[in-house]
Amino acid sequence: MSKWYTVGKLSNTHGLRGEVKIVPSTDFAEQRFAIGSKLALQDERSGSMTTIEIVSSREQKGFYIVKLKGFDHINDVEKFKGWLVKISEEEQGELEEGEYYYHEIIGCKAVTEEGEELGVISEILSPGANHVWVVDRIQPKGKQLLLPVIDDVILDVDIVNKKVLVRLLEGLI
Predict the structure, then answer these.
(1) DSSP per residue over 20-54, as a string?
(2) 40, 45, 51, 138: which sits with the fewest CB atoms below 10 Å from its CB?
(3) In what order do the strands lie in the sheet with 109-112?
């Protein structure tokens, strides 16, 4: 059985002809929601999944308006509101060196050059020019550390051992 990764969330219907709004949570939204893409919708509560194929897609104000094959009326897609949009591991594709999928980074330990374990990366933000990795701190507990994903801060990413080596610049803590 294949692994599935979240690439967005179906937030609402759009119009009467079965189109839906998807909020992307991927760096590859143009590829993921392109015509012909094979994805799945998953209900977080029940875990049930439905495979889908995209037949039309357009970006609009940070959302993607997509039409799903075989779903031609608002009543066909209404039940999917709030469902996660997933991609199978096989459909993901290879990345270039130094590029990572969100699921590879989330859960990694952030460790300083001096060997101090800062915490675990729990979230990835995309506020502007570069991503920001959110680290849930070990000490002080409950605090978060925001690490800009730039070469001066992120020194090494070891996906196999789930470890990220970081240099804390002045003002980060």
Answers:
(1) EEEEE-STTHHHHTSTT-EEEEE-TTT--EEEEEE
(2) 45
(3) 144-148, 132-137, 117-125, 109-112, 163-166, 154-158
